[in-house]
Design a protein that fits this description.
single chain; HIT family, subunit A; 5 strands; globular
Length: 152
């Protein structure tokens, strides 16, 4: 929420944060893999350790505008993410989804992105309600080191 609230200007007024990842102007070390059609990155503000995002390489905000090749690449990367997270972190389950449009919860609606969130029994607690914060037992950099071998 800190990121979303800090970026309330019009989408055309700033560079897309996901495109900035690809061109290396910000946090490029979060990217785990990429090709001509899609890429996988660690979430900057993860819901859980290992929270991944799968995105089209092309800047596109409408699901219906994806090409067949982009759909295939995204689907394949979603499978790779689940396999990698299962082996690296042994989660009990996953939340996998796309929020299409701002009112549907997309914080950055102009560039499609699927969330792959590993889940463990008891991974939620009172901190988000009482402390207005999340407690994550793993740094994003540590998640990157753990997961990178699965995307090499």
């Amino acid at each position: 929420m800190e990121y979303i609230q800090a970026n309330k200007d019009e989408p055309g007024d700033r560079q897309c944060v996901f495109c900035a990842l690809l061109d290396g102007s910000v946090d490029e070390e979060r990217i785990l893999t990429r090709d001509d059609h899609a890429f996988v990155t660690l979430a900057k503000f993860p819901y859980n350790p290992g929270h991944l995002l799968v995105l089209p390489t092309r800047h596109v905000g409408e699901f219906a505008d994806l090409t067949a090749d982009e759909n295939i690449a995204i689907s394949a990367y979603l499978q790779v993410c689940v396999r990698a997270l299962r082996e690296a972190s042994e989660p009990h389950g996953f939340n996998i989804g796309l929020n299409l449009g701002h009112v549907a919860g997309a914080g950055i609606p102009e560039h499609l992105h699927w969330h792959v969130v590993p889940r463990w029994g008891g991974d939620t607690n009172f901190m988000p309600v009482v402390g207005e914060t999340r407690v994550l037992p793993e740094l994003v950099a540590d998640s990157h080191r753990k997961l990178q071998p699965f995307f090499a």
